[in-house]
Input
Amino acid sequence: SSQFLFLGFSNYMYRDVLSPVVDFLSTQNITCEVIHDGFKKNYSTEQAKNIYTNSIWQYWNKELEKEFVKYKTLVDEAISELIFMKILPKIFMNNNISLWSQMKYTINWLFKFHIQILIEQIVIARYILKKNRISIIISPDVSDPRTRVYSVIANQLKIPVLEVQFGPQGLDGVEWQFLLSDKVATWGNEPYNILIKHGIPAEKIVITGSPRHDKMVNISYNEKITLRNMKGIKTDLKVILLASTYQQKEYNSFSNPKILKSMKNAVFEAANKVKGVILIVKPHPLENLKETKTKRKLLLPNWWIQQNLLISEKKLPTTNMN
Output
């Protein structure tokens, strides 16, 4: 059987993008190995037939430790030489104005922290790709340096790489201009056109739709009933799903946070007034769930009687209950 390697370094990216693909391919006599850099044996899915979820650290051994030390020494020497040359302030220029005062702390952080961690990832990635007979690598994101490491080494070893679009694409996503993968699976015409503008050849882009959205739509009647029963939702109730979100505090200076809060409040109030429906709030993975629940209780003092509003746990499958 073929062996597909899935890069599951980000938990929620794996859940939203790769997990539906893994579940399907595992039924097609394809061995799917999902790797992550945590320490838990099971990551976002239970071990199942043809699905193996492993931490990259299980591959770490004394030989890789020696290789890491060797490359770290070389990188440290190169960084020291670069600093000694005093060339960095001359590199970061804009219209003959030095940007070094704004950039030096970022560069120091890159040299002293990020590059050091990346060396470990490179050493392990080379070992994994050379040790296992991988047919293809499937990645959920091009901006994560961990996934990019595998793309670089895969190109050297002639292993094909497929990127699966994770979220909305925009012209600000400059990381796509450095695409190393053989193909990109994208949602539709709009992201297709954005990728074209980033300089990706049309023959590399395949419109597939979103794996997670497809999985939400293609669900059996029995699965719908099971999901309803999990929360005690009667079959005669119409289910409305609010895919909630949040706003980072850093954005408050130029985007009024009250706008988003008032939108949520309006939805909650409307759901409380309409009979025969139940509103399920699916929080964003980074949303303050406690704050959202508090808002719900303040607005709906009789929520426990009316039972037409639920706050779902972040990992609960809440779609397609109608």
Notes: Residues 191 and 234 are 39 Å apart (CA to CA). Residues 40-46, 298-307, 314-322 have pLDDT under 50 and may be disordered. The longest strand covers residues 30-36.
